[in-house]
DNA sequence: GTCTATACGAAGATAGAC
DNA sequence: GTCTATCTTCGTATAGAC
């Protein structure tokens, strides 16, 4: 039973790290405050994560990336267009619900070339981006898109969404996210109906 | 002549801040190291920038945003497509020349909701994004695009470029930036030739 | 195995010597 | 006006008591 609560405490730290990185970025996320927020002693943090902050960050990024990928994969089952829309709505909800104070932890880690962010955390960020891009590209391929075009479109979607999340936070407005929606939908339609043969 | 060298020292601090924020983000950029890098005593920093780190950061963001805008405006004179290409090449050069260790300082500030980043720095970031988007949208309008479509396309370009810069850093590869290029060019062509009437 | 107490350095900012 | 020396707080990480 200790296993259960111990793993729970560990998980709480990872989830808390993801949330804090999402808001402040990695450097501004202190292990101290993280432990306090998770009601865990500071020492426990280094017991669960011998690799220190870097390990904690890497697991937080992987956790967050996988959670997003799971939702994306589920929504993509209804087709690439529905997947795209859900993806946009999901991020929109995060920035709105936090009054533009939170964004994407994967993005945050990717723009901080601090020693502790290199290595595991950066690798986890790259894996998350690759996972999301791969899911989108796969769905586009499944719906008639050519391989190369699918990868290009998927990359553009991920890049545009990430960039617009940051722009929304800077502007304290959802306009950037809302404005890219239409163009991305057009791109998805174009990619999945290359010859415009009148698919459903 | 003291004016000249004093202003030079000030400018050196601003440029150094922009460079450091570009690489590490705002939180990991210390005023101490900044002063050392600019060969200025720590006290001088607070003499030039009474507002402390926040003021320094805000000026660094504005400086960087204006520099980018100046280049973008110049290249856009040859048309939106040439402007887009130059924009992409410019960012590509930054990430490649620094071995993927530097990105966009405006983006970095936008994803760090730390107290010192709110206020002036965040406002400067929003202004930079708005300036770039405005320049692109204006050029698209000048070349036949409708107002709303121009703004959507311009926003998508800025968002996609910013996002792909972060992805390039995470992957340590220029693939993301290279992959979005084609799609963005198609979007610009579509926006400026809405009825496909065979413009020059 | 868990956690308190602490080591050690660096952060932002300032006071006061030149 | 310029800058050195310092104050205070907070960072990561650990040692050693329970």
Of all chain pairs, the largest interface belongs to:
A-B, 49 and 49 residues
- Radius of gyration of chain A equals 18 Å
Beta-strand segment tally of chain A = 0
Count of all domains of chain A: 1
Q: Architecture of chain A, CATH level 2? A: Orthogonal Bundle
The number of distinct helices of chain A, counting runs of at least 4 residues, comes to 9
Q: What does the largest sheet of chain A look like?
A: none
CATH fold-level name of chain A? Tetracycline Repressor, domain 2
Structural class of chain A: mainly alpha
CATH C-level of chain A: Mainly Alpha
The CATH homology group name of chain A: Tetracycline Repressor, domain 2
Describe the structure in brief.
Two copies of one chain form a homodimer. Chain A is 76% helix and 0% strand.
């Amino acid at each position: 039973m200790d296993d259960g609560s111990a793993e729970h405490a560990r998980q709480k730290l990872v989830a808390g790290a993801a949330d804090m990185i999402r808001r402040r970025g990695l450097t501004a996320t202190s292990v101290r405050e993280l432990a306090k927020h998770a009601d865990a002693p500071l020492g426990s943090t280094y017991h669960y994560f011998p690799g220190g902050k870097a390990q904690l960050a890497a697991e937080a990024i992987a956790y967050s990336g996988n959670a997003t990928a799971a939702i994306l994969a589920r929504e993509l089952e209804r087709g690439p267009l529905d997947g795209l829309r859900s993806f946009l709505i999901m991020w929109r909800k995060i920035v709105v619900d936090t009054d533009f104070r939170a964004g994407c932890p994967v993005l945050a880690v990717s723009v901080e070339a601090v020693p502790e962010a290199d290595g595991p955390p950066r690798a986890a960020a790259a894996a998350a981006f690759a996972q999301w891009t791969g899911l989108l590209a796969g769905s586009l391929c499944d719906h008639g898109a050519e391989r190369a075009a699918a990868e290009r479109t998927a990359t553009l979607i991920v890049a545009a969404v990430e960039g617009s999340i940051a722009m929304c936070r800077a502007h304290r407005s959802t306009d950037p996210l809302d404005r890219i929606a239409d163009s991305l939908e057009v791109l998805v339609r174009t990619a999945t109906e290359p010859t415009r043969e009148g698919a459903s």
